[in-house]
Design brief:
The chain is of the alpha+beta class. It contains four helices and seven strands; from the N terminus they run H-H-H-E-E-E-H-E-E-E-E. It has helices spanning 2-19, 24-45, 50-67, 101-114; strands at residues 74-76, 80-81, 86-92, 118-123, 130-134, 140-145, 151-156. Strands 1, 2, 3, 4, 5, 6 and 7 form a seven-stranded antiparallel β-sheet that branches. The relative contact order is 0.20.
Length: 198
Amino acid sequence: MKRRFQIVAVALAFGFALSGCGNDSGQSSGSESARTAKSSKNTKESGMNMQEAAERSDGMLDAVLKEIDPEVQWAHGPTTTGSCDVTRRRTVMTIVSAERRQGFLDQVEKFWRESDYRIKAKNDDKVFPAVYAQTKDGFGISVSFRGKGQAFFEADSPCVKESKVADPTSKPNGPAYEGVYPLPRPNVRSDYWSTGAS
């Protein structure tokens, strides 16, 4: 009798664990994870390596910065690599006042939507707003405002084949700040973007 009770208890515990795998609340996150895993797998299987992923990220960052009107001055941020992914960064050196930040983000979001990126999340905070997007092949890209209202762009690759990663070849449209980290706070005034900034 005691043995039978133990078997029933184990079977019930196992059944409850399995039933949690298919519940309604987990389906959307599960399918989301599956899509992300699939796009990462496809990128890796296509033969893309970390250097190629870095170049793709650079192209994404170049494209969005060219779309901002009027132009803002930017510099390269640090590149970081994981075991199979790479992140490229750009730091905006133009002062973007609090009253202009939403307009800045609107331009960026519009361009990403037109580029068929999926907007994954938005932070509508008045001081530190941000927009996060993703390409169909799993590259993430974001823009966020941080301390002193400085805008930061970041592009993250999905998992790709391991390789060495060279420095970006894109030339900043202002001082390069090579070997300087952290970069200075925004210090370039714009008649448009800096309106209302002290």
